[in-house]
Write a structure and sequence with these properties.
This protein is an alpha/beta fold. The chain has seven helices and seven strands, in the order βαββββββαααααα. Helix 4 packs antiparallel against helix 7. The protein is elongated and about 80 Å long.
Length: 239
C-alpha cells in the first residue's frame, strides 16, 4: 500500500486533472467519486489533499462514511519528499531514521543551557564564602559550556537546513545571532579568567567584577536562546 507524505497528499486536492484524497487516522482515502467532494471541497469547508483526522470528530457523521470510499494508502506526516542533490540523500536517510531529524540539536543545546544555570551560582557562592574550590567548579562549568556551544550551533544550523529549508524568519535569526554572541562572550570570559585575573576571589578587583557580570550576561543569553528554541518546538500564544 502506498505511503503518502504531506506534500504528496496536498497534490491530490480534487482540482481539474487531480484526484481527491483525504487522510484520516493515518489512512488515505480516495473521495474522487463522491458527489459530496465535487471539486475537492466538502460542505464548502473541508478541502481534499489534507489530513482531516481532527475535523471528522466534529462532523455530523462518524468514520463509517469512509467505508463507502476506496482506501488507497497510508499517511505519514513525518515523511517529506526528498529534494535533489545531497540534501535529498540526507532527507531519504532521515526518513528512515526520523530520530535524527530533531533529536541531535536539543540533546547538544541542553548542555550549555544546563551549565549556564550552574556556573553563576557556583561563582557567586565561591565569592561569598571565599571558597576556591567552588570558584574553580564554576570556571570548569563555564569552560565546558563554551566548549559545548559550537556543537549546539552546528546541529542548530543542520536542523534549520533540514526542517526549515534554511528559510529566514525572526525567531531563527535571533537564535543564530545570540548563539554566536554567546560563543564570543564565553571565549572572552575564559581568557579573562585564565590569563588576566590573578585572584578570582578578590571581589574588589575590577576584572573580577567584569568577569562576574559577564558570566551573568552569558547565562541570560544562553537561557534565552534555549527559550527561543522552545518556542519553535512548543509554540504558544500570548494572552
Amino acid at each position: 500500500m502506498k505511503v503518502y507524505t504531506s506534500e504528496k497528499l496536498a497534490e491530490a486536492d480534487g482540482k481539474p486533472g487531480c484526484s481527491a484524497l483525504v487522510a484520516v487516522d493515518g489512512k488515505v482515502y480516495d473521495v474522487s467519486t463522491s458527489e459530496k467532494w465535487a471539486g475537492g471541497i466538502h460542505m464548502r469547508r473541508h478541502r481534499a489533499g489534507a489530513n482531516l483526522s481532527i475535523d471528522i470528530d466534529s462532523a455530523p457523521h462518524g468514520r463509517e462514511v469512509l467505508e463507502r470510499v476506496e482506501l488507497v494508502g497510508t499517511f505519514d506526516e513525518t515523511l517529506r519528499e526528498a529534494p535533489p542533490g545531497i540534501r535529498g540523500e540526507i532527507e531519504r536517510w532521515l526518513n528512515k531514521h526520523p530520530f535524527f531529524r530533531r533529536h541531535p540539536h536539543p540533546a547538544f543545546v541542553h548542555v550549555p543551557v544546563g551549565l549556564a544555570v550552574v556556573f553563576p551560582v557556583f561563582q557567586i557562592g565561591g565569592l561569598v564564602f571565599q571558597s576556591a574550590g567552588t570558584e574553580w567548579a564554576a570556571f570548569c562549568c563555564l569552560l565546558m559550556s563554551v566548549l559545548a556551544v559550537p556543537a549546539a550551533i552546528a546541529t542548530g544550523y543542520f536542523t534549520w537546513w533540514i526542517n526549515y529549508e534554511a528559510k529566514d524568519f525572526p525567531t531563527v535569526r535571533m537564535k543564530r545571532h545570540l548563539a554566536w554572541v554567546s560563543l564570543v562572550l564565553g571565549i572572552l570570559l575564559v581568557l579573562l579568567r585564565s590569563v588576566i585575573i590573578v585572584d578570582p576571589l578578590n571581589f574588589h578587583d575590577v576584572y573580577v567584577i567584569a568577569y562576574l557580570a559577564g558570566i551573568l550576561a552569558l547565562a541570560a543569553l544562553i537561557s534565552y536562546v534555549g527559550f527561543l528554541g522552545g518556542t519553535l518546538t512548543f509554540p504558544y500564544e500570548r494572552d
